[in-house]
Amino acid sequence: MRRRDFFAVLGGGIVVLMVDDADAQESGGGARRGTREPLPQNLSAWLHIGETGMVTVYTGKVEVGQNARTSLTQAVAEELRAPVEQIRLVMGDTALTPFDMGTFGSQTTPQMWPVIRRAAATARETLVDLAAQKWMVERASVSVADGKVSSGSHRAGFGDLTSGQKLTQTIPSSVALTPAAEWKVAGTSVAKVGGRDMVTGAHRYAFDIKRPGMLYGKVLYPPQFGATLASLDSAAAEAMPGVKVVREDNFVGVTARDAATADKAVAALRAEWKPVTAEASSKDVFSYYKKHSRDGAAENPHFTSYTVAYIAHVPLEPRAAVAEWQDDKLTVWTGTQRPFGVRSELAQNLKIPEDRVHVIMPDTGSGYGGKHNGEAAYEAARLAYASGMPVKRNWTREEEMTWAYFRPGGIIDVHGTMNPDGTLAAWEFHNYNSGPSALQTPYDVPSKTERFHPSQSPLRQGSYRGLAGTANHFARESYMDELAHSIKMDPLEFRLKNAKNERLRAVMEAAAQKFGWRDRKKTSGRGCGMSAGFEKGGYVATCAEVSVASGAVKVLRVVEAFECGAVVNPEHLRNQVEGSIAMGLGGALFEQIDFADNKILNDRLSRYRVPRFADMPAIESVLLDRKDLPSAGAGETPIMGVAPAIGNAIFEATGQRLRALPMKVG
After folding, report:
1. Which residues are registered as beta bridge partners of 145?
2. How far is C-alpha 487 from the geometric centre of its chain's CA atoms?
3. Residue 10 above 80 pLDDT?
4. Which range among 90-94, 117-121, 184-188 shows the weakest confidence by mean pLDDT?
5. Which of 61, 174, 434, 572 could form a cystine bridge with 67, CB 3.0-4.6 A?
6. Coil, helix or strand for 475?
7. pTM
8. Which fold has domain 206-275+314-403?
9. Taking 80 as the threshold, does the pLDDT of residue 639 lie above it?
10. 3-186 — its CATH code?
11. b/e map 437-476, b = 16+ CB within 10 Å
12. What CATH number matches the domain at 410-456+465-661, 3.40.50.1980, 3.10.129.10, 3.40.190.10, 3.30.365.10?
């Protein structure tokens, strides 16, 4: 949207526009055509104060359950001195919001939160200027509080001062921000914005969107990855009332007036496929990674190897989209973490300019890094174009667990040596395929080699909550435990002996104290383990207690200490930590994609084990609020310590060292 169009949409009031030199060309809400080259990360932000005093904030970030809508609202409320109820966020709408690379990497808080604060602070100072001019008083006498501006006997709402003016103000980098120690709204447990609508069912997710005359779409997929369509008999499907069959090369889909008919129609298609030969299965994939490493495999006879399986994201809401064409322009409602990225994908694949594509992202039912791309949106757009009507394309759970990308599997080789006093002397760590996140050890070691080796993957793979941080923490913290036990040193004391970083030491001490680590008593069939680490600007330490009986592992208790700088919303941060622990149980003990012959063998929840209520331990979180440090993201790092802490506890209980995720006691 061009700037003049943006003003027309907003109407009267103050518009605050931040434009950095590097991203001035992006500030209209559009990326450069194609968007394949790296884009600036310093994002523009808009803030509008309407004539009624309502504050509307625009951000390309999206809400997928991490409570970004609430935390960004708190940023505005804090700096603008306005009630939370007076603030409305528009998120992830490519026609209204500034360009954004996407909501991933725990970057909303460290990147967008300061930008939004600066915009709100500049708006506050602009209101002070307007009041001083209008009332002809000294600027220093004007104050802003609770959504009102006052000076002596003068008092006015925000909207009263704007008087319909279309004013712009460039946000200076020097605008004064409220120190964390003086926060009144930020740093408090503000209730989730829109939370009532979500728990009562009033909120409409992408899965729920409806448009006038809307049809329902279904796509025919091949029986295995890589297979190509040899022939198609669509007569039976086309004979069904209201059904349209769409075929374009290997793409085959149907539209119908209702979802049940669409299911029947796609089942009636008779297709023959040209098969492909599978290169690997879940049974031999770890040797495949090393064999297909792009830079070869490291050799060391002393390596200890750890493996992690592919796992699925299992979002509460599978991929969903509604597409509608009007006057050769496409509008898509879809759940995605990258609305602008999906816009670029659609424009490129449909061979139309980006300014003819509008992507709207309703607050969506989780993503966990799995909703970066626009597969459902693209399918809906193709079917809508062919049918001439809006089309809804909702993926089934089986489609989600087959055709979405997975968290990468990997194999990790590690070896370390120690000095006689228990300090680390040398460290070598090689990750194949899983990824480089959290690759570097946070412990002090004078000689170290840490490398990520990209490899071919037999399955489609991509982002997942914490990326490879979970795999690398599992290998490193399990091996640290092995080293500690090899010299009969307590695992906590061994880590403290090798950790000089005061933030890392602080979370370890906090978790240990809450857990009662130093006073724990060993009981037959029970064990305790711990882990620690750093990633995404946050430090985490996890203590776990497990029981093991007849090969069954039960996690009894988990204590996790987390520090990510100044805490923005304590209750929501606690939710992130405890949710990460619950999710981390799955990757630690249950979740694994089984595949062979280029087919997923466990493509539904009856075959793919996720944590259940009965699996949940007692969870205690310890939040270290460092108001002297910038706020970091919290959506990913807390998951990373769960698996190694459980594995180390299993070792203490059984004497068996488990080096594969998911862990199974044999």
Report:
1. 148
2. 39
3. no
4. 117-121
5. 572
6. helix
7. 0.92
8. Aldehyde Oxidoreductase; domain 4 (3.30.365)
9. yes
10. 3.30.365.10
11. bbbebbbeeeeeebebbebebbbebbbbbbbbbbbbbbbb
12. 3.30.365.10
